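Hi support team,

I submitted a single chain yesterday and got back a structure, but I'm not sure I'm reading the token output correctly. Could someone confirm the output below corresponds to the sequence I sent? I've pasted both exactly as they appear in my results page.

Thanks,
R.
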Amino acid sequence: MAAPVVVGYTATDAGADALALGARLAVATGSVLEIVMVLPGERSVITPPDAGYDRLVRERAHQWLARASETLKETVAHGRHVRYGESFAEGLIAAAAEFGAGMIVVGAANGGLRGRHRLGTVANELMHSSDVPVVLAPEGAREVAASVGVERVTAAIGTRPGGDVLLAEAAGLATASGAPLRLLSLATVDLPAGVDTGVIRLTEATHAEKVLAQARASLGEGSVAEVVSAQGADIEDAVSQIEWLPGEIAMVGSSRLAQPRRLFLGSTAAKMLHVLPVPMIVVPRTRNADGAR
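Hi R., thanks for writing in. Yes, this is the structure output for that exact sequence:
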């Protein structure tokens, strides 16, 4: 069985999006879904301790979790938990460690366009501190049934270090979910502006062949369905021109600026988020020597 999936839940549309996507991933990979609501760990000086108020908040949180559980019915094995932390993100990271989770799923910030991403405070904090992959659920993900599963996994790989970790994570998700793996070459996006067209074409072809060869060498001959190259005036234009399946999952690596085994959303991934119509998983760029994140 794959590692559990932790969902950062709130009783909002964003929380429903995260829950639905988490259920999809758990069903597709045969994982247990752990639904987590994080409450403040300490009351502020302005708000004095009040046992009655704290009890009310805790009871309300359990009620919201029970309703979330009801929406899942028997589609996926799941648990529901109330945890405490100085921040929602800190509580989710602690919960992921507690459950040995393979990923944390959160929803978009309020005000995002349907099918698009808009990072909120929690997602932004996770992007700078999580040591496990973070899954960003776009607005409207709640409308996709858990039975859709994962139709395809696309890993966006550039020319900078860290692609091997991303490739391994993408292959693991593809294998666990039974989905085909597609590699998206970002070689031409990494080139400086004004480069000759011939250089762009040569770089594109060379990098695509290199990525495919490395993938097949480490993952097996039939593990990768295809390699496509991002082509466009910029990364947003390139991503917009690529075909995306309704049940697709996109995966990107953390920025090279990230601390070891931590996330940091790079500029390319951040730009992709503006136009990406499917969920995105951001993967920490390094692992421990024993292979753990």
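A quick pointer for reading it: The mean pLDDT is 80. Let us know if anything else looks off.

Best,
Support desk
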